[in-house]
Amino acid sequence: MDPKIPEQVTEQATQESSSPLSDADKIRLKRLAKLAKLQQNSSDNLAGTSKNVVSSSSSVSAQSTSSTAATTSQQLQNKGSQEPMNTTSISPKPKRPLKSFEDWQDDVISKVLQITLDKSSAEKSDSQLIYLNSLVAELKEEDPAKTSFKLSQSLLEKALFARLSIDPNQMSDDEETFLAISKLPRTSLFNYLLDCWKRASEIKRNLLTRASKTLDPLVVNERVKVMEALKDLLVNYVGLVIQYPDMFPQVNNSMDSSPQQLVPRLLADINSPEGLPLDFIQELAARVDEEGFEKVFGQALVGLAAQMRSRNILNDYLNPLNGLVTLTEIKSLAAMLPKLRSWNPPDLTAKAFEVASLLGPFCRLSVFPSDEPSISENYFGNIQRSKADVDSLVISLRGAMQGVQKTLFNIFNNIIRSSPSSKEAVLSYFARVIKLNEKRTQMQVDPSQVGTDGFLMNLSSVSLTFAEPIYSKIDRIDIHYFRKSKRIDISQETKIKATQPESDEYYSSVGSEVAPPNFISEIFFITLAMHHYGPLQCYNNYNNFNRDLVELQKQYDRMKAEQPNWAGTPAAAFNEVLLKRCKDQLEKWAVHKIAYDSQLLDPTTLSRSLQFYNLVINWVLRIVDPTGQYPAKQISLPLPPTPPEEFIMLPEFVIEDITEFFSFISRYNPKVILSCSRDELVIFIITFLKSSSYIKNPYLKAKLVEILFYYTMRNENEGGIGMILNTHPIALEHLMSSLMSFYVEVEQTGTHTQFYDKFNIRYNISQIFNSIWNNPIYRDKLKEESRKTDSFVKFANLLMNDATYLLDESLTKLTELRNIQNEMDNTDEWNRKTQQQRQERENLLRSLERQATSYMALGNETVHMLEYMTSEAAEPFLTPQIVDRLAAMLDYNLNSLVGPRCTELKVKNQEKYRFQPRTLLQQLITIYLNLCKSKEFIQAVARDGRSYRKELFSKAANILMKYSLKLDRDVKVLENFVNDVEEVIKKEAAGEEELGEVPDEFLDPLIFEIMEDPVILPGSNISIDRKSITTHLLSDATDPFNRKPLTIDQVIPNTELKERIEAFKREKREKRNG
């Protein structure tokens, strides 16, 4: 019920309104008038329970989602009930009360409010009671015959008003007034009312527990109603003094009397004397409407946020965070939060938003050095700590951040569950964060224009928790979400395989009558976008940081190694400063790395993201599955040639983020993948390698291979997928052909770095081949693919091209390396060079070392692939387009390894550069042996007049025997092969002598050999041998003479020229025989 207003208040407002007033008086009277207009208590309700005096709306029952408030909630449900107390909780033998109900009321009201109507009680030396002289005078006027008065439920309103009206700052000569003022607590009225409420709550609690065991239930019921009425009245007046702090006289220079005075109370534990009891907050919240909420709780929440801005994960962050949790656990308050102006403030940058928005300061708690560098330096500053100490600190920090993220989820969850409008407000808040942080994906990011890593990571964790219940509801994720909702703007995002005009038309063609997406879809796509702009960018930054850290360490090591050279020189002082600066930076970055690791490599966090990305994988596969039933039904490969429109119109980052996430965990914490099924990843990779036309960006497909490579290199207990690749039906059926197809595809990626990119991609492919080669099913698949002559010849040709280029480059770099090493070994000559000259040569040496190592590693794997593939499928390597070049490549490298200039390759620390000449020689000889029975191969080696030498094979055989690299029978086979080659050479020499001088028009314009099957190129109209142009087109699909696109089916047989060549040959043979 509304609080009852004493008549003198109304009279005072009426009298003073007729005389001139100051502005302050007018404001005070307006507020008093507001109080006076409230309805009086209904005469039939002696309980005196008050309605909301803060607003005109009726109060609602306080509710709580907190388990700690369960008891209080049950008590509140009994409030105002006319039914007697449950007698089962009362003593079976109740006693009569020692005091009358009137005396009891007077005692407890006096105790709670610390007031009295008995002057003698107030005058006692130890009494803290305040004598309400004004109320006694009023009561005497109403009943002159009465000489003594007692406090009662009917006088509650008048008594509390009289107490609050006493001016603590008044100077009075009146003894009674002076005594009353001297006893007033020197605190705000809010604190006084709160203390009164606590005393009333304690008395009520004792009535329900202790007194109920000894007193009659009717007596207990009667007394409880008095305490409920008193508590209600106190809560109502709390609302008044918070909203209108100058309605009643306050102590001068007292603590803040504005709503901000709630902040220290909210920061304290709710069970401590300084805290706000949950029951009290619930009762106060039940009596405020939207306007009252803004005034009573709005400023307090802003104050909590302000407190949070100065806190970090090491600095008492729990108090404001727990204060916010306490408020949001009250449903009515949680529903009001999004209505505050600071909830989602407009016109702010991302950085300003996370500081100025209501929940921003709570969500930006971070351990990232980029956000809070002092945390890593203070927490991990002693770099000399043992690994066990560091691990313990990391675990502690991870636990703290996990606790923060769980608490943040509870806050958002409380708000979402409070009302439909609050749910929409939370989704809009997340979308706003996403929109403001779109620039985080740019190549060059201005930190002042984007949110912090911690802010995005925490909100990503919150969205992940919301997403967890939808993992089993994949069929309810709306594939048309981006058409139905503009909450997440993807209009400018690159699509998987659609142009911008196509995308614009697709997303603008949806009708207005389409139903909005469901909450499951909202959460799925918000989580997807939040990860894209949050964790995925953090992973990218972490990669860059690690790269910079490695480079800094190398720089420091070089400076340290060169220290003896410049010690004692004029540059020593300057170099010492640089060395110390470099060391300090290394130590600083080392502790920063630990801080990054504690957050980004947290197994729990990564495992949760892994579960989500497995869901994304299944959802994407479900879209491209022609049946639309995956994962309930296994997908069938290959996919249809034309991808679904819903798939190609998706933003490319959907696929990119999957690849980036799995690439990150495979490199830094591969064991995380053991927490989930790995089948989804394998199926996803093979699906889009097998149907590679579905994805336009070659970088994404290369990432798929990279992930496969990383996980095939791991043991099963480290997350390796070797067992899956060797048992899963889709892998067994499609992996070999998919990898071979992509090996060919990466020859032309369309990027300016394609020439170098292809080697890295093919290295990964070669490693995957190595890991599965022992499985006979895969070897059978290779043979099956080799029967597809055209496609396999392209693969074999590129394999041979790579081996030729990589070995040539690596051996050349080794030669250059040896030259510089020899220079440096000649101390006198080296010292005669200037410092700059030495520096230049040393820089060149380091560059050559990097190049030689890289080329040799790639070359070794390529030769190894040739070795085992020619053992299983030799025929494709013997085609006319390949066999000559393969023979030339083998002969050239054999010459390099055992020929006259082999000593130029003897560099120091050969293993450092992956150079293993004996192993390489063994592999080359194995390839010879795999092909040596073929007539085509023997003839090709015989035709190689540039590098083939019989004595090279003899020397190679001696090395193989000396180091037991081959069996005797293998060496014998090699000798027979060389003899066969020599026999062919003799015959070829006789044939060339027979032909004599060959007309130029009969010679191939590329290799200058007599043509066997001349054809005309349609663009340039030049005649060339079919074998020659076919070989060229395997590597370059253009006319070699005008660079226009060309395919082999476009060439025109030159029958007339072929007949003339045949006639020329016949004539020469006849002349010799005649």
UniProtKB/TrEMBL annotation:
Organism: Glomus cerebriforme
Family: Belongs to the ubiquitin conjugation factor E4 family.
Domain of life: Eukaryota
Comp. bias (Polar residues): 9-21, 39-52, 76-91
UniProt-annotated stretches for the region Disordered: 1-25, 38-98
Protein name: RING-type E3 ubiquitin transferase
Keyword Coiled coil: no
EC code: 2.3.2.27
